[in-house]
Amino acid sequence: MSEPLRPAQIDVDALLDDPNTHIVVCCGSGGVGKTTTAAALALRAAERGRKTVVLTIDPAKRLAQALGLRELSNQPKQVSIEGFEPAGDLNAMMLDMRRTFDDMVLAHAGRERAEQILNNHFYQTISTSFSGTQEYMAMEKLGQLSAAGTWDLIVVDTPPSRSALDFLDAPQRLSTVLDGRLIKMLSSPARVGGKGLRKIVGAGFGMFAKAVSTVIGGQLLTDAAAFVQAFDSTFGGFRERAAQTYRLLRSPGTAFLVVAAPEPDALREATYFVERLAGERMPLVGLVANRTHPVVAALASTRAASAAEEMEATGSAPLAAAVLRVHADRVAVAEREKRLLARFTRAHPEVSLVGVPALPSDVHDLAGLREIGRRLAGE
């Protein structure tokens, strides 16, 4: 029987200490600990001398609570807690999708045109609820942080679920929509007295206009026309910025870490992320197998369970029998996790890995984040 494949181990400290590492992106499905992993990496990097900012896309307040902050805003906030004196610097922020979109408009449009856009109902709709907007704004915010040159390491906590990688598509998706046929149709009434739209949709114009107006509101056609006219000369500027950020993500200074729990669904999602990143030629560092349950010097699960059954049958040593039961369950979990990770490694032998043993309780402070950082580093 051949030996199981042993993947290369991720050297987390070498990654964080490398001055050429400027961006670390944590991605993975929901509920696997991406936010905690990102915060722990940022904290460890700051304590090792890097000037670090962690950007979370997660609207939950877990990151703020773990860092001892009441809340996070759309701008980096320095983590300053009594007794916390890192060799570097640690800052944290949470993406505010609408605020980032507004700031982008203000930066790229003149004052008068910016006011027209910001007050437009059609803009207010797409800036908060349009598919892909959150991912696009994550790209924009990352580009802003990188361009500022204030931090030498940016750690990004991506949105949960498979949409965590939608930000790779977001610039093109938003560009296609805003440059596309639907927008031209919606804006045509104001441009050519409605004849353009009527020509495109023919006799169904009234039904079409009524249906689309019902979706967004009665002023849709007018607002869309005004929006496109004000936006036309602005969108090219931040479409180019999104392209620059995309190139930044593919550069050698960026490192992607896929975070997964040792569970079938999470590892299937991890496979999707690994394959997608490879397809986009993004620099993947490896897989963080989070919340594992390793057992050292274990009595085999079946033997422990058998011994427990014998004790229970004779009624002797009930406490020892209970301990053996717990041990048997723990070993069974560890063996199951090893099989799942081995299956992933056989499918992706090129992907490095680091296992992070689960903590006995949830992380809610810097001490917990430090412990996660130590486990990431294999200490």
Automatic annotation (TrEMBL):
Superkingdom of this protein's organism: Bacteria
Q: Nucleotide-binding among the record's keywords? A: yes
Looking at the keywords, is ATP-binding present? yes
Q: Which UniProt keywords apply?
A: ATP-binding, Nucleotide-binding
- Which Pfam family is an annotated match for this chain, by its short name? ArsA_ATPase
Question: What are the GO MF terms of this UniProt record?
Answer: ATP binding; ATP hydrolysis activity
User: Residue limits of the ArsA/GET3 Anion-transporting ATPase-like domain?
Assistant: 22-291
Q: Extract the InterPro entries matched here.
A: ArsA/GET3_ATPase-like, ATPase_ArsA/GET3, P-loop_NTPase
Protein name, entry field: Arsenite efflux ATP-binding protein ArsA
